Amino acid sequence: MRVLHFYKTYYPDTWGGIEQVIRQLCVGTGRLGVTNEVLTLSRSGPSKIEIDGHTVHRVPLDFEVASTGFSFAAIRKLARLARDADVIHYHFPWPFMDIAHFMARINKPCVVTYHSDIVRQKNLLRVYSPLKRRFLRSVDTVVATSPNYLASSPVLKRFEHKTRTITYGLDKSTYPVASEELKAKWRAQFGERFFLFVGVLRYYKGLHILLDAMANLDYPVVIVGAGPEEQALKQHAQRLGLTHVHFIGAVEEDDKAALLELSYAMVFPSHLRSEAFGISLLEGAMYGKPMISSEIGTGTTYINIDNDTGLVVPPDDPAALGAAMRTLWEQPELAAGMGRRAEARYWELFTAETMAKNYHALYRELAGKAR
Questions:
Q1: Which of 279, 289, 4, 6 has the alpha carbon at shortest distance from 145?
Q2: In whole angstroms, what is the distance from residue 155 CA to residue 157 CA?
Q3: Which residue(s) pair with 292 in the sheet?
Q4: What is the pLDDT of residue 128?
Q5: Distance CA 88, CA 81 (A)
Q6: N or C: which end of the chain has fewer CB within 10 A?
Q7: Which pLDDT band, with edges at 50, 70 and 90, does 210 fall under?
């Protein structure tokens, strides 16, 4: 069976959560006999590369409008690659993808993983909504990434008759095992206990809320990642005099694994629905860490169950976030128990193997249907 994935960005150009999900999906279903290809846009580099056993086709990015990449070559390439595919797997949102789907005259079974509502670009959404509805009507199946998101998304409710839930999954065996020397280096820098955030520094990650919370706390916090909000956040931390909050930028996978293993707890203050799931939050659960997150009606609260695997606070509430951090810091036995339950929940629901088996069954079902 041949599956073609279509998304605006992919490795090695970008390393975000959706790219991680596509990679884990390609590796996992590849072990079940699926031949995966990924079509994506790129600013430079070779037009065809191999990553983890699957082929990545890269076409030139021509221009961007409101963070939406456009490529004339992608339409032709999509039409050509689709001829050899049994199933087309789209990854939403990406308005150009909807246009390409119709212009390439795709007539193969199609599935859309609905990663997120469009939250910020209100003006674009008004113009785009008719095309979005037509696109989602045209595909065979829509996949929600958590029951929470299906219940809270007005778009998914409209297409509930063709929507099913398949959660994200991670394969811990693909993560490096950090050396003792590397862990000792980070331990010497940040101490035996610290809160950890991992992610791209975007507007919806709520890190300004975390910084405001830390104005009244002196616990060490390590922020891993780079992104468009990085400078503004560093300036905000400087204004608040936060010498115990450490911005260390993007790090290598070995270093990330070491920090995940060493951390005391994960803090994940995303406050807007643009945070549809939270892959780095799931990484914390995979490493057996208690978590703090906000209730935003998305997959973050499917990963982190309040008072079970961690604590869930109202969004955009520095006082509540700080109180949750204080609770975990001052009650190590409570935090350790939550971490154990978080890891157990990961193994029960969120492995890459489970995700791959569910998608493989869906692919077979779609490929068996005549359009």
A1: 279
A2: 5
A3: 267, 311
A4: 84
A5: 10
A6: C
A7: very high
pLDDT tens across 39-52, in order? 999 998 899 999 99
In this prediction, residues 112-131 reach a mean pLDDT of 81
Q: How far from 130 is each of 71, 75, 117, 133, 134, CA to CA, in Å?
A: 21, 20, 15, 5, 6
Q: Which three-class secondary structure state does DSSP give residue 264?
A: coil
| Secondary structure of residue 113 in the 3-state scheme | strand
Q: What is the pTM of this model?
A: 0.89
Is 356 in contact with 169 (CB distance < 8 Å)? Answer: yes
Sheet containing 163-165: order of strands = 48-51, 54-60, 35-42, 2-6, 87-92, 110-114, 141-144, 163-165
Q: Within a 10 A sphere around the Cβ of 159, how many other Cβ atoms?
A: 19
**139, two tokens:** 């595909």
pLDDT tens-digit map of 317-367: 999 999 999 999 999 999 999 999 999 999 999 999 999 999 999 999 999
243: closest CA among 270, 221, 274? 221
Full set of structural domains in the chain with CATH: 2-170+351-367 (3.40.50.2000), 172-349 (3.40.50.2000)
For residues 105-130, one letter each, b for 16 or more C-beta atoms within 10 angstroms of the residue's C-beta and e for the rest, the string is ebebbbbbbbbbbbeebeeebeebee
Report how far residue 156's alpha carbon sits from residue 161's, in angstroms, rounded to the nearest whole number. 9
- Interval 269-299: pLDDT, tens: 999 988 999 999 999 999 999 999 999 999 9
Kindly list the distances between the CA atom of residue 224 and the CA atoms of 137, 179, 246, 301, in Å, as whole numbers in the listed order: 39, 19, 9, 22
User: What is the helix (H) or strand (E) element at residue 20, kind and residue range?
Assistant: helix 17-30
Place of tokens 């992608």: 74
**Spatial contact of 337 and 318, defined as CB atoms under 8 Å apart:** no
Classify residue 153 by its DSSP letter.
-
